[in-house]
Amino acid sequence: MALPVNIDSIPAELKVLNHWAVWKTEETEDGHKTKVSYYKLKRRANVSRPETWLSFDSAVNLLNKYPEFEGLTFSLTADLGITGVDYDDTITEDGEFDTAKLEEIKALGSYVEISPSHQGLRAFCYARLPNDKGKHSMKQNIELYSTGKFLSVTGYHVEGTSLTLNEAQRPLDALYEKYFPLQTVSSDESILPKTQIVLSDKDIIQLLGTGPYAERFKKLFYNGDLSKYNNDSSAADWALCGMFTFYTQEPEQVDRLFRESALLRPKWGEIHGEGTYGEITINKCLMSRKKVYMGGLI
User: Fold this and answer.
1) What are the boundaries of each domain within the chain?
2) Sign of the torsion angle spanned by Cα atoms 280, 241, 265, 7
3) What one-character-per-residue DSSP string does 198-267 give?
4) Tens of pLDDT along 217-275?
């Protein structure tokens, strides 16, 4: 059973933002359980669509109204400059903390709480990740996110940590370097073709909507139609990502575009190995590309 929400201890810096939703546990198509965010009883919230977010009070009211909802979630977006730091498996069944991890997260000097599972710690602080790109290490049980992610909020403040969100760029940089040291770019990537033209999200959607595969693109992007892919969601994900990577080789832009599509589902943000399903799909598409857009007619 998830830890109930302690509303009073949630930092005011988060409460004033209309970035809230509620969550409940659902089972994915491959049998895994995941938290799914909602802004109405049967309407899922989308981290890239602000119209599906709620004020704090509205989210609390929704949580209290429907017993199937288990807690609150907060949408992290790049404009906020807020990073969420998540440690799994740091609290035993007896309530004992992993001392090293506790001291590490305390070093951020910001708000820290206990996660809904009763077994993890989560901090929220003012800081940014390199390229605002989230990271996850299954080996170390740590996740870092600053955009494109709903994070649950319990309000179960950890004694000895700040009650407010504080600036933590330096300690976060040190944490990032410890668990995710910068790596050199693969030589394989350097020999792959790259678009020399910078296109906006709107440009790419317009080009795809008028190009030779316009009908297929529209069915995937606007309707989430899987009929051309034997109703295989993963195959459809791959096809749409492949269309995007023809026009841009920036993973963040591909991710942003995909999140605007009707194909988006909770699995996109689920951790599979050292990355999310979405990150892995995008990376595979990028590494398998043979042609890219060079301008003019296709």
Assistant:
1) 14-179, 187-287
2) positive
3) ---HHHHHHHHHHSTTHHHHHHHHTT---GGGTT-HHHHHHHHHHHHHHH---HHHHHHHHHTSTT--GG
4) 999 999 999 998 888 898 899 999 999 999 999 999 999 999 999 999 988 988 776 67
Which one-letter DSSP state was computed for residue 197? S
The pLDDT tens digits of the residues spanning 64-99 come to 999 999 999 999 998 999 999 999 999 998 889 999
Provide the CB-side half-sphere exposure for 25 (13 A, CA).
Answer: 9
Q: Round to whole Å and give the CA distance between 270 and 279.
A: 10
The third-level CATH classification (topology) of the domain covering 187-287 is 1.10.1240
DSSP assignments along 60-120, one per residue: HHHHHH-TT--EEEEEE-GGGTEEEEEE-S-B-TT--B-HHHHHHHHTT-SEEEE-TTSS-
Q: Distance (Å, rounded) from C-alpha 129 to C-alpha 174?
A: 11
Tokens of 85: 């730091």
Alpha carbon distance 37, 22 (integer Å): 5
